[in-house]
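User: Quick one: structure for sequence A, then sequence B.

Assistant: Sequence A:
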Amino acid sequence: MPPKSRLGQNFLRDQQAIRRIVAALGDCAGRTVVEIGPGLGAITRELAAKVGRVLALEVDRELASSLSAEFAGNAEGRTTPESNVQIEAVDVLAFDFAAASAAAGQRLIVAGNLPYYITSPILLRLAENAAVLDRAVLMVQREVADRVTAAPGSRDYGLLSVTVQMHGPVEPLFTLPPSAFSPPPKVHSTVFRWRFAPRFEELGVNREEFLRFARQVFALKRKTLANNLRAAGIESTAAVAALSDAGIDLKARAESQSAEALARLWKCLQKAGATSSDEVAPANY
C-alpha cells in the first residue's frame, strides 16, 4: 500500500531499530501498549510478540482495515480470541486514553513513530493524559527531540521542553537516518523515552495556570522574562519584585531558567497577587 504524503507516512523498515524501540519499553508482559500510527505494522508485529495487548491507533482507514485483517482476522477491528492486537481507525488526538486505561485496569504504555506534521499536538495530548500513562518510547524528527530533551540554557530549550518535562523525565535514545524509512524523509529521526511523572504537585504549582504562565514567558523568545511579564499585563514593579524574590536576574530570559526556577517565579507572582492578562498569544511549541 503506497504511503500518503498528506498523512506524513514514512514507514520504518530498519528491523534492528524496530527491536530497539520495543526493547526500550522495558518489560511489558501483561501490559497494554498503545501504538500511535502503526502504518504497515512493522512495530506492531514486534510488540505483539512481547506485550500483553496492543491497541494500535491508525487514522488511515485503508491501513487500519488491512492491519485488522492481518492481526484480527476481520476488517472491523474486532479481535479474535487468539489475538492480542486490536486496531482502531481513530485519530490519536480524539482517542480516550482515560477510558482505555480504565478498561485495561492499569496505566498505559505508549509507543509510536509520530507523524512530523502533528508531533507537538500529539505530545501535548499525551501530557494531558499523563495521569493514566506510565511511559512512552516515541520517534520524532530529530530537531523536535532536541527541543523535547533540551536542558535550560541550551539553544533548543523552550516552551516544548518545559511542557513535556513538567510531565516527567525524558531521555534521547538513538537517531536514525532517512534510509531507515520508506519513503525516506528529508530529515533524521530520534527515538526518546518519556516516563510520566508530573511535577506540578511537587513544585507547588497549579497545572493549568502554570502552563498558561509558561506560554506567556516564552511568548517573545528574544525578550527578557521581565519584558514578557509586562507584555502579559503584569505591572512592572510587581514583575521586578517577583523576579528578585525568586532569585532570578532581572535580565534573564525564560530559556535560561529551569522548571524549578519558573515555578518559584510563578509562586512569587501568585503570592504578590500579580495577575496577567487572560489573553495568551498562540503558543509556539
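Sequence B:
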Amino acid sequence: MSPTSHDRPHDADASSEPAEPARRRFLQSAAAAAALGAAPHLRAQNAPEPANAADTPTPPAVPAQPVRLDINGREYVLHLEARVTLLDALRDYAGLTGTKKGCDRGQCGACTVLADGRRINACLTLAVMHEGQRITTVEGLATTGVPATIQRAFIERDALQCGYCTPGQLCSATACLSEFAAGTASAVSADVRTRPAQLSDDEIRERMSGNICRCGAYANIVAAVRDAHAASA
C-alpha cells in the first residue's frame, strides 16, 4: 500500500532539516567572534587602578648648566637644560628674536643661522653643541649699524613681503655667497669637480632651495642675491 500524502513529509520540511545544523554553527561562530572582540575591552575595564600618583617617585629634574655661546661677536652665558635647542636658546634666553621659529622641523629655513660661517637650522640642533663656535644671526649681519650688502639688496629689490622668512633668507644668502666664493659646487653645477663658472639664477635657486617663502617672493630674492654677488665681486 502506497503512502498517502499525509504519510509523506512536506518538501519544505525536508529542505529545512539539513539547514538547521548549518544555522546552529553560524550562530555559534558569531557568538564566539563577539566574545573575542569584547575580551580586550573587558580586560581594559577590569584592569587594576593605577597607583596613587603621590606614591610614584618623580624623577629628579635635570639641572640647568651654564652654556657659553659666542653670538654675533658677544659672549653669552646661558643657563640651559641639555635639551634646549639653539633656536630656543637664541629667542627665549638670549633675547635675539630675529631668528624665527617656523615649522620647528627643519623644513622651512626660517630659523637659519650661521655657525662658523656654515648655515644650519637652529631648530634641529642643541645649544650645548655649539660652545666654542661663532654663531651669527640676522642681528649680526650689519656692521656698526650699517646694513650688509645682502640686506641692502633685499631692500632695493623688495625681496620680502610679510618678512617672516627674511631673517633665514638673509643668513642663507650670506652663506650662499661665501660658498660660491670658496668654489663650492652645487647640484646644478656643470662639473662638481671644478669651481662653478658663474653664479647663475639656477645656481642661486638651488643654493637657496632650503628656504621657503610662503609669500612667493622668489624672483626678487634671486635678483637680490645676484645683485649682492655683483656688488661683492
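The first strand starts at residue 65 and ends at 71. The beta strands are 65-71, 74-80, 112-115, 118-121, 134-136.

User: Thanks, that's what I needed.
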